[in-house]
Amino acid sequence: MFKLQTTFPKDFLWGGATAANQLEGASDVGGKGLSLSDVYVFDENIPKEHWTDQWHMMTHKQVEEAMDPTISRYYPKRNGIDFYHHYKEDISLFAEMGFKCYRMSLAWTRIFPNGDEVEPNEEGLAFYDRVFDELNKHGIEPIVSLSHYEMPLHLCKKYGGWVNRKVIDFYVRFATTVFERYKDKVNYWMTFNEINCVKHHPYVSLGVIEEGHPHIEQAKYQGAHHQFVASALATKECKVWNPDAKVGCMISYQLLVPYSCNPDDIQATVDNQRTSLFFSDVQARGYYPAYTARMFEEKNVVLETQPEDEHILREYPVDFVSFSYYMSSAISAYPEKLEGAVGNLLTGGIKNPYLPTSDWGWQIDPKGLRTALNQLYDRYQKPLFIAENGLGAVDKLEEGDIIQDDYRISYLRDHIEQIKEAIKDGVDVFGYTSWGCIDMISASTNQMSKRYGYIYVDQDDMGRGTKRRIKKKSFHWYKKVIASNGESLD
To answer: Among 292, 284, 289, which residue's Cα sits nearest to residue 316?
Structure first.
């Protein structure tokens, strides 16, 4: 019989999450190459409603311009918040909050600037040695994503991205290099960030430029297949260097609910959910689910595979399932008749009249996190890790370095309460890293003013500012949460 767990496990991993391409900066330091994310621009003169256009559709012209050193445009993710030079200060602040873990990513282009080199870049490896040593000094466990929207741009331009099977070998070389180098410093790895987002933005997920592509659905799923194989091979290799290490997959999980009890809405929800969870199904179960045949038939997708692929996937599934959760989404079979959720970046879902929205139109559904945890645990029966969750908002810096972000505290409190409820339900969830623990460049809009952090960074959308770090009200609140192991949420 199972014993009711009414509190967070005593070894629960509390912390925060970031991505190298959004905070490191120093893109011209230490031999770093250009990544896919280094192509995104921000222009304060463009209307706000168009800020996410690049995220949804990258053009060949934009890529060519980004590679031209004479082009004078602002590329925010090349500058980040200069974590590269501030990492000791930032990690010290994480430690002051009491972080047990820090979910981060490696910039592939720091270690293999073009991606296809035979030998790694020592300066890049040494930088992460310093970061891991600093985390270890403060007793913070690193949880590291190998690839978080920062694939080398060269692999996109020369090889066509992940559609090309050669990229598997380049990725495995990269993974093997860091597994060997950091075998005594990193115990938790994630192979690909939000791997299911290849459906929505193939450029930054796969290195595939959608503009003018003759068969984008084929490219998406062929690229995903190669990532599945690469993930399995990386999992195999990780165990060689550190048999006790854990390797996880990571998906964007937007809880999907039927807009109504109309059977058509219910079936549309099932179909959409399968399309989203297909990616973790393959990585966690080790095989393609039965519904894949119909899904591929309807998308006119025919995968090119090698005889050994099926064996590789079955032999080396992931150890745990991690996911981001920001919102839920209502699904209708007839969306054209209903009001859409304006800020819904993934599913294009219907506005749920029962839910409030953030400054960016994302619908806030804390109870959906409990449902999501139960759904994923019921489906996979593997430990779960909440890799991202947070509220992007406009923060006001008041006189005396005061930021009263009670709205963020409320959002996080409501979600953490639901994690505790899921634990009572019997879900095995071992950690929580809220997204953007320090303010950094937004993934989707490339702006700075969409802030998630407990730590304010004095920098505007065009990179102007002192980059001074300032504690928000939520900083002190989260410190109490961690110290009480989730019991003190007031």
So the answer is: 284
